[in-house]
Amino acid sequence: MRTGDLALSLAVASIFSAVAIPARAVDSVSLEAGHGDSTRLVRAGVQWNWDQQWWKSNGTHIGGYWDLTLAQWRGSRYRDIGGRSQELAVLGITPVFRFQSDSRKGFYIEAGIGANLLSERYDNDGKRFSTRFQFGDHVGLGYVFANNLDLGLKIQHFSNAGIKKPNPGVDFAIIQLRYGFQ
């Protein structure tokens, strides 16, 4: 089995096992838009909050959630040719750690590293991925309003972590709007 096939198999298995973890209803839904490296991103997601809280102190803690997303990327320089576009679907699952108030309202910072599967290999603006499987890591900050509306900003990087060369990576700046049902 080739390294790329093994990575793809592991990604699919981890996505399905992660989806099986939350046995309860969805805690929130999100919409995101971003741009980077001549590529636009739109993404929808569902989230399941973790019940676990770590390092509780002064009304704050580290908690987190599972983030299951489906995205569309649209590159504007397919095969590095201006005016040619490439559209990809991207399925992702990410465990996200969030430093937040105990009420889950107000300011927060978060970080996560997840698994993503692209519908085809990315080839845009001189950057060509060698695998369809990519890790997606992000750092972000935001604010949760009293009505459970969450407005956030994040920087996200996609890369295969050196599974196969070339591994140029792609970076996005993303704005997120999320609504919590709790």
Automatic annotation (TrEMBL):
Keywords: Cell outer membrane, Hydrolase, Membrane, Signal. Its EC number is 3.1.1.77. It catalyses: a 3-(acyloxy)acyl derivative of bacterial toxin + H2O = a 3-hydroxyacyl derivative of bacterial toxin + a fatty acid + H(+). It is found in: Cell outer membrane. Residues 1-25 form the signal peptide. Coiled coil: none annotated. Pfam families: PagL. It is a multi-pass membrane protein. Belongs to the PagL family. Has lipid A 3-O-deacylase activity. Hydrolyzes the ester bond at the 3 position of lipid A, a bioactive component of lipopolysaccharide (LPS), thereby releasing the primary fatty acyl moiety. Homodimer. This is Lipid A deacylase.
